[in-house]
Design a protein that fits this description.
about 280 residues; alpha/beta; Rossmann fold; six-stranded mixed beta sheet; three-stranded antiparallel beta sheet; 10 helices; 12 strands; about 30% strand; elongated; binds adenosine-5'-diphosphate; binds magnesium ion
């Protein structure tokens, strides 16, 4: 197997007495879109900022494109694109000026106009950054991260605060990055975003990684089928590993009674069910 783009082993981070990350491990392959999914305060930004070289870890090993980001090597930084959770840009510079300025920092940047088009900001190219809407600013952040043509891109909550149309645009950009062969580590607390974009996701909660795998397998892992129907106006539900057998029995019994099972359905838990189940406060 080729060397992973990112490798994290037993990563730990404490802020004073707060243990924000309590020993998490995962690998991200080159060309993969990997989603760190979890509620606010789970430790996603802490993890990503350690990988970006912005924060020091308290323990564990990490490797990013073969280097330790804690060394803050300039060569590594030019191969990585970063969208911070909260951004910094010059409010008086226009979109085009901001992107061109950033392009000048990199040895082999993408074309600035093409990058502005990629994030869907063509119509705003001459607008000052300070006059953009929240969603447009996040798209500018994305353009600033992409213009250096990095191999690896960190996107920390890339669509928080976006309206639905802007989210779709941003999702399109992430998919284009994958087509270009880039590696993407994204964090999100939106389950649909993680599910729709990621090749694999890791669910984090309270600084621990509580599940990881391809979105489809994460839900399949706990795949109890659910059969539901109405009887005398009351909803009845059953869970089973063998829906064929149970369905046969339920429908057989109903026919013997001369009844129909109204609203009969067979479903599997979605990733949403799994996520809510894993991240709920109640012990399960
Ligand atoms: N600079 C900091 N100093 C102290 N505590 C922090 C700091 N940054 C984050 N934390 C705490 O660490 C935990 C994880 O935060 P964070 O990594 O930002 O989570 P997420 O990005 O998943 O919302 C939270 O309890 C947060 O309050
Ligand atoms: Mg965060």
């Amino acid at each position: 197997m080729p060397e992973a783009a990112i490798s994290v082993r037993d990563l730990r981070k404490s802020y004073g007495s707060v243990e924000a990350v309590r020993g998490i491990s995962f690998d991200v392959a080159r060309g993969e879109i990997f989603g760190l999914l979890g509620p606010n305060g789970a430790g996603k930004t802490t993890t990503v900022e350690i990988l970006e070289g912005y924060r020091k870890r308290s323990g564990g090993d990490v490797s990013v494109l073969g280097s330790d980001p804690a060394a803050r090597d300039r060569g590594l930084r030019k191969r990585v694109g970063i969208v911070l959770q909260s951004s910094g840009f010059y409010p008086r510079a226009t979109v085009r000026e901001s992107v061109e300025h950033m392009a000048a920092v990199y040895p082999a940047p993408r074309d600035p106009s093409e990058t502005i088009a990629l994030v869907g900001l063509e119509e705003k190219r001459d607008t000052r950054a300070g006059k953009l809407s929240g969603g447009q600013r996040r798209r500018l952040d994305l353009a600033l991260a992409l213009v250096g043509d990095p191999e690896l891109i960190f996107l920390d909550e890339p669509t928080t605060g976006f309206d639905p149309a802007a989210r779709r645009t941003a999702w399109g950009v992430v998919r284009k990055l994958k087509e270009l062969g880039k590696t993407v580590l994204l964090t999100t607390h939106y389950l649909d975003e993680a599910q729709s974009l990621s090749d694999r996701v890791a669910i984090v909660k309270d600084g621990l990684l509580i599940a990881q795998g391809p979105p489809s397998e994460l839900s399949a892992d706990r795949a109890r089928y659910r059969i539901s129907y109405r009887r005398n106006g009351q909803l009845a539900q059953h869970e089973t590993d063998d829906p064929t057998e149970l369905l046969h029995r339920l429908t057989g019994e109903a026919l013997e009674r001369g009844e129909r099972l109204e609203d009969l359905s067979v479903s599997r838990p979605t990733l949403e069910d799994v996520y809510l189940d894993l991240t709920s406060e109640e012990p399960s």
